[in-house]
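Entry 14. Structure prediction run on the chain below.
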Amino acid sequence: MDLNDLIDFLQAAARSLGAEVTSPWFYFQLGLIMAGAGLALAASAAIRAHINAGSVAMGWPAPLRLFLRVLVGGISTAAFAGLMMLARLAMRSLTWPSRSYLLAVAAKLALAWLLISLVTSVIRNAFMVRLVSISAWLVAALSIIGQLDPTVDALDSVSVVLGGLRLTPLLVIKFGVMLVAALWLTNIASNFMESRIAQSSDLTPSIQVLLVKMIRVALMVVAIAVAMSSVGIDLSALAIFSGAAGVGIGFGLQKIVANFVSGIILLADKSVKPGDLVTIGDSSGRISAMNTRYISVAAGDGREFLIPNEDLVTQKVVNWTYTDSNTLVKVPFSTSYDANPRQVCKLAADVAAATSGAVKERPPSCILVEFTDAGMKFSLTFWLPDPNGMDNVKSEVMLSLWDALRREGIGAPYTVREIRLRGGPVPVEAAPEVAT
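Output returned:
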């Protein structure tokens, strides 16, 4: 179809529409359609008020419950379609069939929408339901009014040739439909595989995440290739875009690619995994998720840090649970020289051993670190089975140590300074008198 044919088609459609609008039967059918819509809405409200789909379908199989819920939700559409078919039959028996054409179109459109609603009820994604419903109904509407083939020809008449690829609006629409369907099926398949992998106790968390990411990427690539092949796009025709894609990756997408590759490396070498307690720069917390571009570190105060994967490869990372979840806690403290250092070390070790949460298999240790001008410095160390709550346990040990030192009469060191004046007393000038 060239431009002249398109203009002739539009002119013929305009003349046909003008002839239809000027007929009094058009307005009569329009009135019947509006009356039928009002009656359908009233009937739908009455039925919904007296029928509870949940109680009626209790005990039914899941597909039948879903069918009944969709049917009750679309009762107004079904009632409207039934009224239009009755009006159509009445009009055909009283007058010419051509004078009830609009009623037939309205009934078919309503039935098409009801059927599409039943089919799309199996889709869980609300956006996908709206997209598929509207697209399918538009195709059905064009087919009902007999304009599907002319519309297809018009969409295929405009084209842009890029290399060996001929792009048309029809080709883009077909590719979009096939791509959405392929990605939807891919999502279902990847979710199923992810659930199966998560149930495997033989795989570590990092290997599970790595397998899930690789499966998702592979299925996505396959979905795109299948969608392109199904609409007749030759994959070799896209070779012209490979150079531009390489330049784009080299300049604009280098960070994204770096984070993606870094994520694969992290999952492969198992240096970090979901559940590890890590410290990266000023951010500390437990890894809650590992994604393609970043990891999510959940802090204890409700915040979540989204850290790019590249930072974990290039920066220093403290993994508190890499090979062993046991954590060494150090508590420095000082006493005066009046105390017995051996007694202080034994007292501090006993306090740490009596603390709840300390590892019993690794007894605490206290050593004398340094003699200073103010007093003696000690270092108390003990082990915890898990780094969670380390600050709370450390505070509890310090408070218990303070109470124990006070009971034993061991004081804290204080800095003592002596000031000696040489050369006699310093004269003090009298302050000037203030006149009153």
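The longest helix spans residues 169-198.
Filed with the rest of this week's runs.
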